[in-house]
């Protein structure tokens, strides 16, 4: 019997165990981050379950409709937002929340206040919700700087995020996390209700054969962008053309890029001069994940067993 393989199957590294291991390397840590993360994980499990039964539970469609019992239907992204906001506040570890679904930042009342600021898109890929294509949650975590939290605390550069991650609700549900020391992926085992480490120390392959972009916007691109994409299709150096893959859910498109390599881009264009993706909770978390993924080799020795 292959004992190593058997141990791999029976010695389950849950996400909580993984984070506790990581935090134990910081003697000053009081477990606050682990508690915060367990509330994010709870939100992800809830949304995963809601996404899986969306059609059955009539969670798809527009918010504001009423069901047969006269109850108000909540659109899946509205429901996901409520779940994350409530889970994060009740963790007692957050002070400011910024969600794509809410126009204003939420300042947590002093009695429930903690030291973390969480920025998130509770359910990204809205155009794919109603047709059952992969969608996801994106989040980033900052440490509050001011003793009395202000909006400045969530206007910090992406590089100052303590942790970032995403959860993809796809053919399997996968949570990918970086606390600044490599990137690790956990797959939800629905029978256990636990995220288990399945992709350790993810590194984006240096070379990839895929480009991922909404080419329908090409008419509005600037020249360098148009030239770049043209070169993916008709390479001038004699290399084979790249394949095009575009889901239209950033979480899925970037997840594939993390694992297979290549490039994902949503460039600014004449229609959206600032680009479509929101920097704080759609782009910064991926900058953290991409950056720590490439750097992760440097940290391996410090990771311990
Ligand atoms: P959303 O926040 O409304 O869901 O929009 C963000 C999504 C990204 O997931 C994806 O990369 C992009 O919008 C797709 O846009 P398009 O449909 O223009 O290609
Ligand atoms: Mg979004």
TrEMBL record:
It is an enzyme of class 3 (hydrolase). Residues 13-199 form the Fructose-1-6-bisphosphatase class I N-terminal domain. It comes from the Eukaryota. Its EC number is 3.1.3.11. Keywords: Carbohydrate metabolism, Cytoplasm, Hydrolase. It catalyses: beta-D-fructose 1,6-bisphosphate + H2O = beta-D-fructose 6-phosphate + phosphate. InterPro entries: FBPase_C_dom (IPR044015), FBPase_class-1 (IPR000146), FBPase_N (IPR033391), FBPtase (IPR028343). Residues 204-287 form the Fructose-1-6-bisphosphatase class 1 C-terminal domain. One of its GO terms (biological process) is sucrose biosynthetic process. One of its GO terms (cellular component) is cytosol. GO terms for molecular function: fructose 1,6-bisphosphate 1-phosphatase activity. Belongs to the FBPase class 1 family. PANTHER family: FRUCTOSE-1,6-BISPHOSPHATASE, CYTOSOLIC (PTHR11556:SF41), FRUCTOSE-1,6-BISPHOSPHATASE-RELATED (PTHR11556). This is fructose-bisphosphatase.
